[in-house]
Design goal:
Layout lengths: L1 E6 L4 H11 L4 E6 L9 H11 L3 E4 L6 H6 L1 H24 L3 E7 L45 H16 L3 E6 L2 E2 L12 H11 L2 E5 L7 E2 H13 L5 E4 L8 H14 L7 E5 L27 H15 L1
Parallel strand pairs: 1-2, 1-3, 3-4, 4-5, 5-9, 6-8, 7-10
Helix pairs in contact: 1-7, 2-4, 4-5, 6-8, 8-9
């Protein structure tokens, strides 16, 4: 039996990780949240992990107030401590105790301007080339693409990646995007986009949604299961992209949300109006296109299928 330490246990992802690993008798789960450890204190991290001696450490704790971090220096400092420096402390402790570290990052480490793939043997002499006929490139960012964050939040997450890589070799950095699922129980846990829009749809005849910022959604239970799969199958250490299949804008996601909600009896007739990002001025820049391309793992199910499961589970609880 392997001891696995889950940090950020009361968050949206943390609670799903606990559920996924507790079902397996090969693991003994130790779950910590803010009251159990302050990951921004290096000596405390070293001491508590050395006493606990886990075989695997999963860091699901994060600072995610993207706009607060951008406009407030105190918040930016806190974000650097939680997202940037703390993963390094955990990596040092993992190395010292011969443990594996799993750390989560984000599509916001990229600038939103992915390279456009060309067919093999492309000469860029289009007049005499037929290689593009039927060629459908997958546009987005692969695991080995160079990060170039355009927000302070993105900078702190990239710093965390670098700190992990600098301080241990036995790591999995898992990048995700637009997490959704059952709301976390911990202080500061954010509600997902779908929860916010579902509430707005029940109260308003019209809602506006940004028809930009194309990326992928990630369903927390699916991410937890895929994390366990990576560990169980002893995948090579390194960076992985884990999102549900398919990409969309916020507007497209809202339209699909109301369509599915109506199909299970919610009868939401709210009109969704597509707008540009300028309609909602926000301090932090967002990547215009940040779909994460997975080149190392079996793909997860489509985000629409995952959303259907989530809404069905919510409907049963009501």
């Amino acid at each position: 039996m392997q001891k696995i330490l889950i940090i950020g246990a009361k968050g949206m992802l943390g609670q799903e990780l606990i559920s996924a690993f507790k079902k397996d008798s090969d693991y003994k789960v130790v779950a910590w949240d803010k009251e159990d450890i302050d990951i921004t204190r290096e000596k405390e991290v070293d001491k508590k992990i050395s006493v606990t001696r886990p075989a695997i450490i999963i860091n699901a704790a994060a600072y995610n107030a993207v706009d607060k971090c951008e406009e407030n220096e105190k918040e930016y400092k806190l974000a650097k401590e939680i997202n940037g420096l703390a993963p390094g402390y955990l990596a040092k402790a993992a190395k010292k105790n011969k443990a594996i570290l799993v750390h989560y990052s984000t599509d916001y480490v990229f600038n939103g301007e992915p390279a456009i793939p060309e067919p093999d043997e492309c000469t860029h002499v289009c007049a005499t080339c037929s290689l593009h006929e039927g060629f459908q490139p997958q546009i987005g960012f692969q695991e080995d693409d160079k990060p170039a964050p355009i927000s302070k939040y993105g900078e702190t997450k990239f710093l965390g990646e670098k700190e992990v890589e600098k301080n241990t070799k036995n790591f999995y950095i898992i990048r995700l995007s637009k997490l959704f699922g059952k709301s976390g129980l911990g202080e500061g846990s954010k509600r997902s986009f779908f929860d916010v829009m579902l509430e707005a749809g029940k109260k308003n005849k019209e809602v506006k949604a940004v028809d930009e910022e194309t990326s992928c959604f990630t369903y927390a239970p699916d991410l937890a299961r895929k994390t366990k799969e990576i560990i169980d199958s002893q995948k090579p250490f390194g960076i992985y992209h884990v999102t549900n299949s398919g990409s969309c804008t916020w507007y497209e996601a809202a339209v699909e949300l109301y369509r599915q909600s109506s199909a299970i009896g919610e009868k939401i007739k709210t009109k969704v109006i597509p707008v540009s990002g300028d309609e909602f001025p926000r301090p932090a820049k967002r990547p215009f296109y940040s779909a994460l391309i997975n080149t190392k793992l079996n793909p997860m199910r489509d985000w629409k299928e995952a959303l259907k499961e989530y809404l069905g589970a919510m409907n049963k609880e009501q």
